[in-house]
Amino acid sequence: MNRDLVNDITRQIQRKFPEFSGVRPKVQKQNATAGTYVLTFSTRVEVAGGKKLSRSVRVVANGQGKILKISTSR
Fold it and tell me: In 9-22, which positions are buried (b, 16+ CB within 10 angstroms) versus exposed (e)?
């Protein structure tokens, strides 16, 4: 997946999940025949009481940069 498509998907995720601002995804090819990719965004956010919570967003996208599925952790 080329850098422009990754940057476009990253901007979409950062708009939807502002806590991932400045986070770069880990990109993996999911299925060679279908041409799908998995982008994984991970960060730690501060919650009430000053504790930190790990947070992840997993995005499945096709080779043209269209987001097919988004899943998040709490």
Answer: bbeebbeebeebee
Q: Which domain holds residue 8?
A: 3-72
26-46 tens-digit pLDDT: 999 997 788 899 999 999 998
Amino acid in position 5: L
- From the list 18, 64, 63, the residue with the least C-alpha distance to 41 is 18
For residues 38-65, average pLDDT = 94
pLDDT at 4 over 80: yes
Nearest to 59 by CA among 3, 22, 24, 19: 24
Q: How many domains does the chain have?
A: 1
